[in-house]
Amino acid sequence: MQRLCPVTRNESSDTLQYRKAVSSAVLTTFAQASKIVVGFLILKLIALYLGPDGLGKLGHFMSLTSILALLAGGGISHGVIKYSAEYRKDKFSLYRLLSTASAFAFVFSALLALLFLLFSRPISIFILGDGNLAWVISSLSVFQLILAFNMLFSSVANGLADVKSFAFAQIIGNLLSLPFAWLLISKFGLSGAAIAIISILAMAAFPSLYLYLRSSLRFRFRRRKIDPTLLKKLSWFSLMLCVSAIAFPVVEIYIRQSLISNSGYTQAGIWQGLIRLSSAYLGFFSVFLASYFMPMISQTNNKKEIESLTLKFIVFVMIVFAVGGGVLYFWRDFFVPLLLSNEFEELNNFLIYQLIGDFFKASNYVIGFIAVARAATRVYIISEVFQAGLFVFLTFLIGRFIVGAEGVTIAYMISYIICFFFGVVVLKFWVRS
Q: What's the main place this protein lives (predicted)?
C-alpha cells in the first residue's frame, strides 16, 4: 500500500529516539521503583522487629553503609558515566577508560577493605556500640569490593545508554535481597539487620556479573594500559564524590549522636525513619538526573543552553516532587504506619518540614549536577561543605529552642531552602560570566 505521507529519514530517526527515550525512562523508573519498594519493605521489617530504638541503634551503621556505597571503587561513578558517553564511538579510548577505571577502583577498594579490617573493633564500638560485632564491619569491608564491581558495571551501562542491562541488574538484585533480608532480620535481630542492609547493595552484583560475562566488554577491563591523563581526570571525580559521600553522612552521625545523648534512642530512631523515607524517594531523582540530565549537559558548552535545560529540569523535579510529597503528607496517617510502624506516629507532627527540605534539596540536585558534568571540583566541594556546615550550625542553634527530632528537621528544611536559592544565584552568575 502506498504511503499517504512519506516518512523522511530524520522523522524515522526522531521517532526511534523518542521510543528509545520513553523505553529508557520506563525501565529506569521500574528499576528505581523496585529499589524504593524493597528499601521500604526492609525498613518496615526493621521497624517491626526492632522498633524506633533498634532503628536508632542502626542509624550510624546505615550512614556508614551509605558512605561506603558511594566510596566503593573510589567514587568515580559519575566520571565513568561521563567518559563512557564521550568515548562510546571510540573503542580504543573506551577500553582504555575501562582499564584505568578498574585499576583505580580495585586499588582504592583494597586499601579501604584493609583499613576497615584492621580497625573493625573500634569502628564497631563507635558505630554499633558493641565490639563483639566487629565481624559485621569486617563483612562490610569485603562487601564493598563487590560494590566496586557493580559500580563500574552500572556506570558503564549508563554511559553507553544501555539502560536495559542497568535496569535488569537493579531489579533482579533488589528482588533477590528481600527474602534474604527478611530471614536475617527476623532470626538474628540487630546483627542480622546490619547484614541485611549490606545485602541490599551487594545483591545487584550477581546479575551484573552475569551480564558482564555475556557482553562484548568481557575482559576488556585488563587489555589496555592505564592512561595517566584519564587517571587524573577520574581522581577529580573521586575527590568530589568522596567529599559528598563523607560530608552529609558524617553530619548525620554527629547529629544523631547528639540526639541519642540528649533525647535518647527513640528520638534518634524517629529521625532515622525520616531520613530513610527521604533517601528512598530522593534516590529516584538522583538516578534520573544522572541518567538523563548529566549526559545532556556534558555534550554542550553553550551556557545559555545549559541554563535553559537546568530550568526545565528544576521545574519538572519540583512538579513531580510536589505531587508525590503532597500525597505522602495528606495521607501520612496511612503511609507512616504502613512504611514504618505505629511507634513512629510522632513524626507525623513534623513530616512537613522534612518534605519541604527535600523539595528544595531535590531541586538543588539539578544545579549540583552541572558542577559534576563540568568537572567543577572546587565549586562542588565548597557547596557540599557549605551545606553540611550550615545544617550543623542551624541544628544546634534551633536545638536550643526546639529539642529532639523536630528541631533537627526544621534546621534541615531551612538549610536546604538557603542552599537552593544560593545555588540559583551561583548558576546565574556562572551563565553571565
A: membrane
Q: Is 226 domain-assigned?
A: yes
Query: Contact 167/31 with Cβ under 8 angstroms?
Result: yes
Give the whole-angstrom CA distance, residue 311 versus residue 315: 6
Q: Please choose, from the candidates 417, 303, 299, the residue with its C-alpha nearest in 3D space to the C-alpha of residue 360.
A: 417
- How many whole angstroms separate alpha carbon 107 and alpha carbon 121? 23
Length of the chain: 433
Give the DSSP H/E element, type plus range, for residue 170: helix 163-202
Please list the alpha-helical segments (H only) found in 289-403.
294-298, 303-330, 332-339, 351-373, 377-398
- Contact present, 151 and 104 (Cβ < 8 Å): no
Contact (CB, 8 A) for 375 and 363: no
Cell of 288: 534520573
CA distance 247 to 387: 9
Q: List, for residues 24-54, the tens digit of each pLDDT value.
A: 667 767 777 787 788 778 888 888 888 877 8
| Distance, C-alpha 397 to centroid of its chain | 28
Classify residue 347 by burial, with Cβ atoms within 10 Å: 0-12, 13-18, 19+. buried
Domain membership flag for residue 261:
yes
Residue 15 counted as domain residue: no
Listed residue (237, 229, 207, 193) closest to 70, CA to CA: 237
Cell of 419: 542552599
Give me the number of domains the chain comprises: 1
Q: Is 223 helix (H, G, I), strand (E, B) or coil?
A: coil
Nearest to 222 by CA among 152, 276, 154, 166: 152
Q: Other C-beta atoms within 10 Å of 295: how many?
A: 18
DSSP state of 376: -
SS3 per-residue string spanning 6-58 = CCCHHHHHHHHHHHHHHHHHHHHHHHHHHHHHHHHHHHHHHHHHHHHHHHHHH
Using CA atoms in the order 178, 180, 182, 186, what is the torsion angle rounded to 10 degrees?
-170
pLDDT per residue as tens digits for the range 166-182? 777 778 888 888 888 88
Neighbouring residues of 37: CB distance < 8 A, sequence distance ≥ 6:
174
CB–CB of 405/350 below 8 Å?
yes
Residue 3 confidence (pLDDT): 39
Residue 178 sits in which domain range?
A: 26-432
Contact in structure between 78 and 289 (CB atoms under 8 Å): no
Can you give the pTM of this predicted structure? 0.71
Within a domain: residue 243? yes
